[in-house]
Design brief:
Largest sheet: 2 strands, antiparallel
Order of helices and strands: HHHHHHEEHHHH
Strand content: under 5%
Shape: globular
Radius of gyration: 19 Å
Helix content: 55-70%
Length: 235
Amino acid sequence: MDAFQLYLRKIVLLLALAALGGCATTSPEDPLEGYNRAMFEFNDSVDRAILKPVAKGYQNVVPAAVDRSITNFFSNLNDIVVVINDLLQLKLSQAGSDAARLAINSTLGLLGLFDVATDMGFEKHDEDFGQTLGAWGMGEGAYVVLPLLGPSTVRDTAGLVVDTVTNPVYYIEGPEWKYGLVALRSVDQRADALRLSRVLEEAALDRYQFVRDAYLQRRDFLIYDGRPPLEDPAP
């Protein structure tokens, strides 16, 4: 059993424990808030102590053009996940466009290091299995903060498992290569989010609530392709 499978088992156990602890809460929006806030603080502590300093160093050392190519490379790998979920949601026209984008960037873009497809008019889309489950009618379930991974829902956590095993990185032989790429992707994503985290720290009075609400709103926006249903006004 590899480290990822062990991590998934820990997540399932934490979700079960959080659900038991959430029985005493009264908030319908966030029944696991006590657990979630504690995990949010834990993740934030790890980020401040390790990931954020590493991301700052990465940003200072890596030239902007190289950083952009690294981001493009991982984005191109994820386009495989996007195409699969296009098909599962029967977005056939979008699937064709995204498959063409993947083929162009994987060849002309040198394994995705250069985003040639966008310049050719092939728009980047964002689809994952959590969105697919939402499109199939599955409710989001409770909001939950995952260890190290951050905001999610019960539905998106299930989707994360499928997205992970459909990403080519999962099948790379040799743990040093696989986890090296996972680490590089994490640092690259954190470096790209440095400016956003500064805005969050300066603007939000309750950072936990801000992140939770922003995450849930963004997921609704993605699932409904920018047209989420309006909530019924309170009586």
